[in-house]
Protein backbone atom coordinates (compact mmCIF):
# COMPACT_ATOMS: atom_id res chain seq x y z
CA UNK A 1 0.00 0.00 0.00
CA UNK A 2 1.31 3.46 -0.90
CA UNK A 3 1.83 6.11 1.76
CA UNK A 4 -0.80 8.20 0.04
CA UNK A 5 -3.43 5.41 -0.26
CA UNK A 6 -5.81 7.39 1.96
CA UNK A 7 -6.37 9.95 -0.74
CA UNK A 8 -6.54 7.50 -3.65
CA UNK A 9 -9.20 5.05 -4.78
CA UNK A 10 -6.96 3.04 -7.08
CA UNK A 11 -3.55 1.42 -6.98
CA UNK A 12 -0.73 3.05 -8.92
CA UNK A 13 -0.41 1.57 -12.40
CA UNK A 14 2.72 -0.59 -12.54
CA UNK A 15 4.06 1.39 -15.49
CA UNK A 16 3.71 4.58 -13.47
CA UNK A 17 5.22 2.92 -10.45
CA UNK A 18 8.38 2.04 -12.35
CA UNK A 19 8.44 5.28 -14.29
CA UNK A 20 8.14 7.39 -11.17
CA UNK A 21 10.71 5.50 -9.17
CA UNK A 22 14.26 6.73 -8.70
CA UNK A 23 15.58 4.11 -6.31
CA UNK A 24 17.64 2.46 -9.07
CA UNK A 25 19.93 5.48 -9.10
CA UNK A 26 19.32 7.43 -5.89
CA UNK A 27 20.13 4.40 -3.72
CA UNK A 28 23.65 5.76 -3.75
CA UNK A 29 22.47 8.57 -1.45
CA UNK A 30 21.74 6.15 1.39
CA UNK A 31 24.52 7.41 3.66
CA UNK A 32 23.51 11.03 3.24
CA UNK A 33 19.85 10.18 3.63
CA UNK A 34 20.47 8.36 6.89
CA UNK A 35 22.77 11.12 8.17
CA UNK A 36 20.09 13.72 7.33
CA UNK A 37 17.43 11.69 9.11
CA UNK A 38 19.57 11.19 12.19
CA UNK A 39 20.21 14.94 12.43
CA UNK A 40 16.53 15.64 11.90
CA UNK A 41 15.42 13.11 14.54
CA UNK A 42 17.92 14.43 17.08
CA UNK A 43 16.61 17.95 16.51
CA UNK A 44 12.97 16.82 16.81
CA UNK A 45 13.82 15.18 20.15
CA UNK A 46 15.77 18.14 21.47
CA UNK A 47 13.03 20.58 20.53
CA UNK A 48 10.37 18.42 22.15
CA UNK A 49 8.60 17.89 18.83
CA UNK A 50 8.83 14.16 19.49
CA UNK A 51 9.75 12.48 22.77
CA UNK A 52 13.50 12.18 23.38
CA UNK A 53 13.21 8.40 23.80
CA UNK A 54 11.45 8.21 20.44
CA UNK A 55 14.26 10.18 18.84
CA UNK A 56 16.74 7.79 20.37
CA UNK A 57 14.89 4.78 19.08
CA UNK A 58 14.73 6.28 15.59
CA UNK A 59 18.44 7.10 15.61
CA UNK A 60 19.41 3.63 16.75
CA UNK A 61 17.16 2.13 14.09
CA UNK A 62 18.76 4.30 11.41
CA UNK A 63 22.26 3.39 12.54
CA UNK A 64 21.40 -0.28 12.33
CA UNK A 65 19.97 0.21 8.85
CA UNK A 66 23.16 1.98 7.77
CA UNK A 67 25.28 -0.93 8.96
CA UNK A 68 23.02 -3.40 7.21
CA UNK A 69 22.98 -1.45 3.95
CA UNK A 70 26.79 -1.32 4.06
CA UNK A 71 26.80 -5.08 4.56
CA UNK A 72 24.51 -5.54 1.57
CA UNK A 73 21.69 -6.84 3.72
CA UNK A 74 18.96 -4.37 2.85
CA UNK A 75 17.02 -4.70 -0.34
CA UNK A 76 15.43 -1.59 -1.74
CA UNK A 77 12.20 -1.78 -3.66
CA UNK A 78 10.73 0.12 -6.60
CA UNK A 79 7.44 0.24 -4.74
CA UNK A 80 8.99 2.56 -2.20
CA UNK A 81 9.94 4.87 -5.06
CA UNK A 82 13.15 6.47 -3.82
CA UNK A 83 15.87 6.22 -1.22
CA UNK A 84 13.98 8.44 1.21
CA UNK A 85 10.85 6.32 1.32
CA UNK A 86 12.83 3.08 1.22
CA UNK A 87 14.80 4.02 4.33
CA UNK A 88 11.69 5.28 6.10
CA UNK A 89 9.77 2.10 5.26
CA UNK A 90 12.68 -0.02 6.43
CA UNK A 91 12.81 1.94 9.69
CA UNK A 92 9.11 1.53 10.36
CA UNK A 93 9.23 -2.16 9.58
CA UNK A 94 12.03 -2.49 12.13
CA UNK A 95 10.95 -0.22 15.00
CA UNK A 96 7.21 0.04 14.42
CA UNK A 97 5.08 3.12 14.93
CA UNK A 98 7.87 5.31 16.32
CA UNK A 99 9.38 5.21 12.83
CA UNK A 100 6.31 7.00 11.55
CA UNK A 101 7.23 10.06 13.61
CA UNK A 102 10.48 10.70 11.71
CA UNK A 103 8.86 12.59 8.86
CA UNK A 104 7.36 15.22 11.20
CA UNK A 105 8.26 18.75 10.04
CA UNK A 106 10.00 17.44 6.94
CA UNK A 107 9.25 16.81 3.28
CA UNK A 108 11.08 14.78 0.71
CA UNK A 109 11.72 18.11 -0.96
CA UNK A 110 14.08 19.37 1.74
CA UNK A 111 15.23 15.81 2.34
CA UNK A 112 16.43 15.26 -1.22
CA UNK A 113 17.95 18.74 -1.32
CA UNK A 114 20.03 18.06 1.78
CA UNK A 115 21.03 14.55 0.71
CA UNK A 116 22.13 15.70 -2.70
CA UNK A 117 24.15 18.60 -1.32
CA UNK A 118 25.88 16.40 1.21
CA UNK A 119 26.77 13.96 -1.52
CA UNK A 120 28.10 16.57 -3.94
CA UNK A 121 30.06 18.24 -1.12
CA UNK A 122 31.77 14.96 -0.32
CA UNK A 123 32.60 14.22 -3.94
CA UNK A 124 33.93 17.72 -4.61
CA UNK A 125 36.47 17.25 -1.85
CA UNK A 126 37.48 13.94 -3.40
CA UNK A 127 37.84 15.48 -6.86
CA UNK A 128 39.88 18.38 -5.48
CA UNK A 129 42.25 15.85 -3.92
CA UNK A 130 42.64 14.11 -7.27
CA UNK A 131 43.39 17.37 -9.09
CA UNK A 132 46.00 18.20 -6.44
CA UNK A 133 47.68 14.84 -7.09
CA UNK A 134 47.83 15.68 -10.77
CA UNK A 135 49.33 19.07 -9.87
CA UNK A 136 52.01 17.21 -7.92
CA UNK A 137 52.95 15.18 -11.00
CA UNK A 138 53.05 18.32 -13.15
CA UNK A 139 55.43 19.94 -10.68
CA UNK A 140 57.64 16.85 -10.72
CA UNK A 141 57.70 16.69 -14.53
CA UNK A 142 58.39 20.41 -14.74
CA UNK A 143 61.33 20.20 -12.36
CA UNK A 144 62.84 17.47 -14.56
CA UNK A 145 62.41 19.41 -17.79
CA UNK A 146 63.38 23.02 -17.06
CA UNK A 147 65.92 22.86 -19.88
CA UNK A 148 64.00 20.58 -22.26
CA UNK A 149 63.61 22.99 -25.17
CA UNK A 150 60.67 22.46 -27.50
CA UNK A 151 58.74 24.50 -29.99
CA UNK A 152 55.77 26.46 -28.76
CA UNK A 153 52.95 26.68 -31.29
CA UNK A 154 50.26 29.02 -32.43
CA UNK A 155 47.83 27.74 -35.08
CA UNK A 156 49.77 24.48 -34.53
CA UNK A 157 52.60 26.13 -36.46
CA UNK A 158 56.00 26.35 -34.80
CA UNK A 159 56.10 29.77 -33.19
CA UNK A 160 58.66 30.48 -30.48
CA UNK A 161 60.90 28.32 -28.32
CA UNK A 162 59.76 27.19 -24.91
CA UNK A 163 60.41 24.24 -22.61
CA UNK A 164 58.39 21.26 -21.55
CA UNK A 165 58.52 22.60 -17.99
CA UNK A 166 56.88 25.84 -19.15
CA UNK A 167 54.22 23.75 -20.85
CA UNK A 168 53.62 21.66 -17.73
CA UNK A 169 53.23 24.79 -15.64
CA UNK A 170 50.69 26.16 -18.13
CA UNK A 171 48.48 23.17 -17.32
CA UNK A 172 49.31 23.45 -13.63
CA UNK A 173 47.91 26.99 -13.69
CA UNK A 174 44.71 25.86 -15.41
CA UNK A 175 44.25 23.12 -12.83
CA UNK A 176 44.89 25.53 -9.99
CA UNK A 177 41.96 27.60 -11.26
CA UNK A 178 39.89 24.40 -11.44
CA UNK A 179 40.67 23.68 -7.81
CA UNK A 180 39.68 27.16 -6.68
CA UNK A 181 36.54 27.01 -8.82
CA UNK A 182 35.55 23.77 -7.09
CA UNK A 183 36.39 25.31 -3.72
CA UNK A 184 34.24 28.37 -4.43
CA UNK A 185 31.38 26.17 -5.49
CA UNK A 186 31.78 24.06 -2.36
CA UNK A 187 31.66 27.14 -0.20
CA UNK A 188 28.49 28.44 -1.85
CA UNK A 189 26.70 25.11 -1.53
CA UNK A 190 27.66 24.82 2.12
CA UNK A 191 24.20 25.85 3.38
CA UNK A 192 21.67 23.41 4.73
CA UNK A 193 18.16 23.25 3.20
CA UNK A 194 16.80 20.88 5.86
CA UNK A 195 13.78 22.33 7.65
CA UNK A 196 12.54 24.11 4.53
CA UNK A 197 9.88 21.40 4.42
CA UNK A 198 7.87 21.08 1.23
CA UNK A 199 8.47 24.78 0.50
CA UNK A 200 7.19 26.88 3.42
CA UNK A 201 8.90 25.34 6.47
CA UNK A 202 6.46 24.20 9.17
CA UNK A 203 4.67 25.31 12.29
CA UNK A 204 6.87 23.24 14.60
CA UNK A 205 9.68 24.88 16.60
CA UNK A 206 12.28 23.41 14.25
CA UNK A 207 15.91 24.44 14.88
CA UNK A 208 17.50 24.66 11.48
CA UNK A 209 20.80 25.88 12.93
CA UNK A 210 21.10 22.71 14.93
CA UNK A 211 20.60 20.40 11.96
CA UNK A 212 22.85 22.52 9.75
CA UNK A 213 25.62 22.27 12.30
CA UNK A 214 25.10 18.56 12.93
CA UNK A 215 25.43 17.86 9.21
CA UNK A 216 28.57 19.99 8.84
CA UNK A 217 27.04 22.90 6.96
CA UNK A 218 28.17 26.47 7.59
CA UNK A 219 24.60 27.67 8.11
CA UNK A 220 21.00 26.98 7.07
CA UNK A 221 19.80 28.32 3.71
CA UNK A 222 18.08 31.72 3.91
CA UNK A 223 14.79 31.15 2.11
CA UNK A 224 12.74 27.97 2.27
CA UNK A 225 11.19 28.38 -1.16
CA UNK A 226 14.63 28.79 -2.72
CA UNK A 227 16.04 25.93 -0.63
CA UNK A 228 13.88 23.27 -2.24
CA UNK A 229 13.91 24.77 -5.74
CA UNK A 230 17.60 25.49 -6.11
CA UNK A 231 19.90 23.22 -8.08
CA UNK A 232 22.51 25.91 -8.75
CA UNK A 233 24.94 24.02 -6.59
CA UNK A 234 24.77 21.04 -8.92
CA UNK A 235 24.99 23.26 -11.99
CA UNK A 236 28.01 25.12 -10.69
CA UNK A 237 29.63 21.83 -9.88
CA UNK A 238 28.92 20.50 -13.39
CA UNK A 239 30.28 23.72 -14.90
CA UNK A 240 33.46 23.43 -12.88
CA UNK A 241 33.75 19.76 -13.91
CA UNK A 242 33.18 20.67 -17.55
CA UNK A 243 35.95 23.26 -17.48
CA UNK A 244 38.26 20.85 -15.69
CA UNK A 245 37.53 18.17 -18.31
CA UNK A 246 38.08 20.71 -21.08
CA UNK A 247 41.58 21.24 -19.68
CA UNK A 248 42.25 17.52 -19.45
CA UNK A 249 40.92 17.12 -22.97
CA UNK A 250 43.24 19.76 -24.41
CA UNK A 251 46.14 18.18 -22.58
CA UNK A 252 45.08 14.78 -23.93
CA UNK A 253 44.99 16.19 -27.43
CA UNK A 254 48.57 17.43 -27.03
CA UNK A 255 49.73 14.07 -25.72
CA UNK A 256 48.03 12.27 -28.59
CA UNK A 257 49.84 14.52 -31.04
CA UNK A 258 53.11 14.29 -29.18
CA UNK A 259 53.21 10.53 -29.21
CA UNK A 260 52.49 10.32 -32.93
CA UNK A 261 55.46 9.41 -35.15
CA UNK A 262 55.21 12.87 -36.67
CA UNK A 263 56.13 14.42 -33.31
CA UNK A 264 57.54 11.69 -31.03
CA UNK A 265 58.07 14.23 -28.25
CA UNK A 266 56.94 11.74 -25.64
CA UNK A 267 56.40 8.06 -25.31
CA UNK A 268 53.66 6.59 -23.16
CA UNK A 269 54.49 3.78 -20.81
CA UNK A 270 53.40 0.37 -22.11
CA UNK A 271 51.12 0.01 -19.10
CA UNK A 272 49.27 3.15 -20.14
CA UNK A 273 48.79 2.46 -23.83
CA UNK A 274 47.12 -0.19 -25.90
CA UNK A 275 47.84 -2.20 -29.01
CA UNK A 276 45.86 -2.90 -32.14
CA UNK A 277 44.01 -6.10 -32.92
CA UNK A 278 45.38 -6.11 -36.46
CA UNK A 279 48.36 -3.77 -36.81
CA UNK A 280 51.29 -5.27 -34.90
CA UNK A 281 53.30 -2.05 -34.86
CA UNK A 282 50.65 0.05 -33.10
CA UNK A 283 50.88 1.62 -29.68
CA UNK A 284 47.82 3.72 -29.15
CA UNK A 285 47.13 6.53 -26.67
CA UNK A 286 43.69 5.19 -25.76
CA UNK A 287 43.73 6.67 -22.27
CA UNK A 288 44.21 10.19 -23.57
CA UNK A 289 41.62 9.64 -26.29
CA UNK A 290 39.07 8.36 -23.80
CA UNK A 291 39.62 11.32 -21.52
CA UNK A 292 39.07 13.58 -24.53
CA UNK A 293 35.95 11.60 -25.46
CA UNK A 294 34.52 11.50 -21.96
CA UNK A 295 34.76 15.28 -21.79
CA UNK A 296 31.79 15.37 -24.14
CA UNK A 297 29.84 13.28 -21.71
CA UNK A 298 30.47 15.68 -18.82
CA UNK A 299 29.42 18.65 -20.98
CA UNK A 300 26.30 16.62 -21.77
CA UNK A 301 25.48 16.37 -18.06
CA UNK A 302 25.76 20.13 -17.64
CA UNK A 303 23.49 20.80 -20.61
CA UNK A 304 21.02 18.15 -19.41
CA UNK A 305 20.57 19.77 -16.03
CA UNK A 306 20.51 23.33 -17.36
CA UNK A 307 17.75 22.25 -19.70
CA UNK A 308 15.81 20.36 -17.03
CA UNK A 309 15.80 23.46 -14.82
CA UNK A 310 15.13 26.19 -17.35
CA UNK A 311 11.34 26.19 -17.33
CA UNK A 312 10.50 25.13 -13.80
CA UNK A 313 8.27 27.29 -11.64
CA UNK A 314 9.00 27.33 -7.91
CA UNK A 315 9.18 25.18 -5.91
CA UNK A 316 9.81 21.43 -6.35
CA UNK A 317 8.72 19.77 -9.57
CA UNK A 318 9.20 16.11 -10.32
CA UNK A 319 11.38 17.08 -13.28
CA UNK A 320 14.02 17.71 -10.66
CA UNK A 321 14.39 14.01 -10.02
CA UNK A 322 16.30 14.12 -13.32
CA UNK A 323 19.07 16.08 -11.57
CA UNK A 324 20.83 13.10 -10.10
CA UNK A 325 21.84 10.85 -12.98
CA UNK A 326 23.79 13.51 -14.89
CA UNK A 327 25.57 14.60 -11.71
CA UNK A 328 26.39 11.02 -10.73
CA UNK A 329 27.62 10.27 -14.21
CA UNK A 330 29.81 13.37 -14.24
CA UNK A 331 31.26 12.46 -10.84
CA UNK A 332 31.98 8.89 -11.93
CA UNK A 333 33.55 10.11 -15.16
CA UNK A 334 35.75 12.79 -13.60
CA UNK A 335 36.81 10.45 -10.80
CA UNK A 336 37.72 7.79 -13.34
CA UNK A 337 39.62 10.15 -15.64
CA UNK A 338 41.78 11.98 -13.09
CA UNK A 339 43.73 9.08 -11.55
CA UNK A 340 44.39 7.32 -14.86
CA UNK A 341 45.43 10.56 -16.54
CA UNK A 342 47.72 11.35 -13.62
CA UNK A 343 49.38 7.94 -13.77
CA UNK A 344 49.75 8.14 -17.54
CA UNK A 345 51.48 11.51 -17.25
CA UNK A 346 53.64 10.35 -14.39
CA UNK A 347 54.99 7.40 -16.35
CA UNK A 348 55.55 8.96 -19.76
CA UNK A 349 59.03 9.31 -21.17
CA UNK A 350 60.17 12.61 -22.64
CA UNK A 351 62.11 12.50 -25.92
CA UNK A 352 64.18 15.64 -25.44
CA UNK A 353 66.20 15.05 -28.62
CA UNK A 354 63.09 15.04 -30.80
CA UNK A 355 61.74 18.14 -29.10
CA UNK A 356 65.00 19.95 -29.64
CA UNK A 357 65.16 18.84 -33.26
CA UNK A 358 61.66 20.15 -33.87
CA UNK A 359 62.65 23.38 -32.19
CA UNK A 360 65.66 23.71 -34.47
CA UNK A 361 63.75 23.68 -37.74
CA UNK A 362 60.83 25.90 -38.53
CA UNK A 363 62.42 29.25 -37.70
CA UNK A 364 61.18 29.48 -34.13
CA UNK A 365 64.08 31.87 -33.52
CA UNK A 366 62.87 34.33 -36.18
CA UNK A 367 61.43 36.69 -33.56
CA UNK A 368 64.78 36.57 -31.77
CA UNK A 369 66.52 37.42 -35.03
CA UNK A 370 64.32 40.50 -35.39
CA UNK A 371 64.94 41.37 -31.73
CA UNK A 372 68.70 41.17 -32.47
CA UNK A 373 68.31 43.96 -35.00
CA UNK A 374 66.08 45.96 -32.65
CA UNK A 375 68.77 45.76 -30.00
CA UNK A 376 71.11 47.27 -32.62
CA UNK A 377 68.76 50.21 -33.00
CA UNK A 378 66.35 49.26 -35.78
CA UNK A 379 62.60 49.83 -35.25
CA UNK A 380 60.82 46.47 -34.75
CA UNK A 381 58.65 46.71 -37.88
CA UNK A 382 61.71 47.16 -40.11
CA UNK A 383 63.57 44.36 -38.39
CA UNK A 384 60.53 42.13 -38.79
CA UNK A 385 60.45 42.82 -42.55
CA UNK A 386 64.16 42.07 -42.94
CA UNK A 387 63.90 38.76 -41.13
CA UNK A 388 60.91 37.86 -43.26
CA UNK A 389 63.15 38.28 -46.28
CA UNK A 390 65.81 36.10 -44.66
CA UNK A 391 63.28 33.36 -43.97
CA UNK A 392 62.16 33.51 -47.57
CA UNK A 393 65.78 33.21 -48.68
CA UNK A 394 66.33 30.19 -46.40
CA UNK A 395 63.21 28.47 -47.69
CA UNK A 396 64.53 28.75 -51.24
CA UNK A 397 68.00 27.43 -50.38
CA UNK A 398 67.02 24.86 -47.75
CA UNK A 399 68.94 26.64 -44.98
CA UNK A 400 67.74 27.65 -41.54
CA UNK A 401 68.63 30.91 -39.78
CA UNK A 402 71.24 29.03 -37.75
CA UNK A 403 73.06 27.74 -40.85
CA UNK A 404 72.64 30.73 -43.15
CA UNK A 405 76.07 32.19 -44.08
CA UNK A 406 76.91 35.59 -42.57
CA UNK A 407 77.23 37.16 -46.02
CA UNK A 408 73.58 36.33 -46.67
CA UNK A 409 72.58 37.94 -43.41
CA UNK A 410 74.62 41.00 -44.36
CA UNK A 411 73.08 41.11 -47.82
CA UNK A 412 69.81 42.22 -46.21
CA UNK A 413 71.22 44.29 -43.33
CA UNK A 414 74.71 45.51 -42.48
CA UNK A 415 73.75 45.40 -38.79
CA UNK A 416 74.30 41.63 -38.72
CA UNK A 417 77.60 40.44 -37.24
CA UNK A 418 79.02 37.04 -36.32
CA UNK A 419 77.40 37.31 -32.87
CA UNK A 420 74.02 36.72 -34.57
CA UNK A 421 74.59 32.95 -34.39
CA UNK A 422 74.84 33.05 -30.64
CA UNK A 423 71.72 35.21 -30.45
CA UNK A 424 69.86 32.57 -32.47
CA UNK A 425 70.86 29.60 -30.33
CA UNK A 426 67.86 27.96 -28.69
CA UNK A 427 69.49 28.21 -25.29
CA UNK A 428 69.85 31.98 -25.71
CA UNK A 429 66.31 32.34 -27.04
CA UNK A 430 64.76 30.46 -24.11
CA UNK A 431 67.16 31.75 -21.48
CA UNK A 432 66.56 35.32 -22.56
CA UNK A 433 62.83 35.10 -21.90
CA UNK A 434 63.18 35.80 -18.20
CA UNK A 435 60.06 37.91 -18.02
CA UNK A 436 57.66 37.01 -15.20
CA UNK A 437 55.66 34.04 -16.51
CA UNK A 438 58.14 33.25 -19.27
CA UNK A 439 59.97 30.04 -20.25
CA UNK A 440 63.51 30.83 -18.98
CA UNK A 441 64.41 28.20 -16.38
CA UNK A 442 64.44 30.72 -13.48
CA UNK A 443 61.08 32.13 -14.50
CA UNK A 444 59.57 28.64 -14.69
CA UNK A 445 61.13 27.74 -11.35
CA UNK A 446 59.23 30.68 -9.84
CA UNK A 447 56.01 29.30 -11.36
CA UNK A 448 56.78 25.89 -9.90
CA UNK A 449 57.39 27.45 -6.48
CA UNK A 450 54.03 29.20 -6.61
CA UNK A 451 52.21 25.97 -7.40
CA UNK A 452 54.14 24.22 -4.64
CA UNK A 453 53.00 26.92 -2.18
CA UNK A 454 49.44 26.45 -3.39
CA UNK A 455 49.72 22.70 -2.81
CA UNK A 456 51.23 23.24 0.63
CA UNK A 457 48.32 25.48 1.65
CA UNK A 458 45.93 22.58 1.02
N1 LIG B 1 12.82 11.17 -5.62
C1 LIG B 1 12.55 12.57 -5.56
C2 LIG B 1 13.66 13.32 -6.29
O1 LIG B 1 14.67 12.73 -6.48
C3 LIG B 1 12.46 13.04 -4.16
C4 LIG B 1 11.63 14.24 -3.95
C5 LIG B 1 10.21 13.90 -4.15
N2 LIG B 1 9.35 14.97 -3.81
C6 LIG B 1 8.09 15.02 -4.27
N3 LIG B 1 7.38 16.04 -3.92
N4 LIG B 1 7.60 14.11 -5.08
O2 LIG B 1 13.51 14.44 -6.65
How would you describe this structure to a colleague?
There is one protein chain. This protein has 458 residues and is mostly helical. It folds into three domains: 17-104, Orthogonal Bundle (Fumarase C, Chain B, domain 1), CATH 1.10.275; 109-204 and 221-357, Fumarase C, Chain A, domain 2 (Up-down Bundle), CATH 1.20.200; 361-451, Fumarase/aspartase (C-terminal domain) (Ribonucleotide Reductase Protein R1, domain 1, Orthogonal Bundle). Helices cover 61% and strands 5% of the residues. It is built from 19 helices and six strands. It has helices at 14-20, 23-26, 30-46, 52-70, 83-95, 108-144, 164-188, 208-214, 224-229, 232-258, 286-309, 324-347, 352-360, 366-375, 380-397, 406-412, 420-424, 426-431, 441-456; strands at 149-154, 157-163, 191-192, 219-220, 266-267, 349-350. The strands form three sheets. It has a two-stranded antiparallel ribbon. Strands 3-4 form a two-stranded parallel sheet. Strands 5-6 form a two-stranded antiparallel ribbon. The longest helix is centred in the N-terminal third of the chain and has 37 residues, at 108-144. The model has no long low-confidence stretch (mean pLDDT 96). Bound molecules: arginine. Arginine is lined by residues 22, 26, 82, 108-109, 112, 316, 318, 320-321.
Amino acid sequence: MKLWAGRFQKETDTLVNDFNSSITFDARLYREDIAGSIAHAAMLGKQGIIEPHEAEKIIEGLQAILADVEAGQVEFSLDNEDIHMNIEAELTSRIGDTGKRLHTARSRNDQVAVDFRLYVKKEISKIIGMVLNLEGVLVKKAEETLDAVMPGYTHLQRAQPTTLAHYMMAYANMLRRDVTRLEDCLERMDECPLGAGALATSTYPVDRFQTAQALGFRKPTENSLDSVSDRDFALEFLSACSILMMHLSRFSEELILWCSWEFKFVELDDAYSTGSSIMPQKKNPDVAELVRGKTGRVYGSLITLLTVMKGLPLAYNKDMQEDKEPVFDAIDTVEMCLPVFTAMLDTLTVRRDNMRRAASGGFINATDCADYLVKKGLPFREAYMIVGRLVHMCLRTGETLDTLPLKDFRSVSALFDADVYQALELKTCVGGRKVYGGPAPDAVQAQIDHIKDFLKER
